[in-house]
Amino acid sequence: MATTTANQQPNSDKSGQTKRLLVIVAIAILAAGAAAGGMWFFMQGRAASAPAGAAAAMAAPAPAPVYFALEPMTVNLQADDGETHYLRIGLTLKLPNQATQDLLQEHTPEIRSRVLLALSNKHPADLSTLDGKRALATELEVLIGQPTEPRGMPLRVDDVLFTEFVVQ
Known about the structure:
Helix content is 59%, strand content 19%. It is α+β, with helices and mostly antiparallel strands. β1 and β2 form a beta hairpin.
């Protein structure tokens, strides 16, 4: 009987090793499947985002703005205190395109006259604060954008930039 028991034990070792081997193979197959599924998932996300990036790259870039510098101007300001006050100002206009710049170039004397008349009506206290300067830039933007011809179209001025600003 002792021999029979000894013969059965090696068979149980073989079946235990076989089970262990099957479990290891099953875990390896599951791990490989999970890795492949994860890779597929992430690659699908990149493939979906690539056309959006490609479409953005293919879209035409916004045209570069055109800058038009006016010569610096010196203006007498209104004064309630009896003293003489001056404003020295340099302006650069940010325009949407070259055609607008060409129109302004043709009518520069008229534009400068408008600006000088508007500035000469200001008080030094109106221009001393940051809000006062911003309000002036907005006012000049509207003023410069007005048509230069009787039945002309208004000009589009994107921004008025100060390159000099001295109040004395």
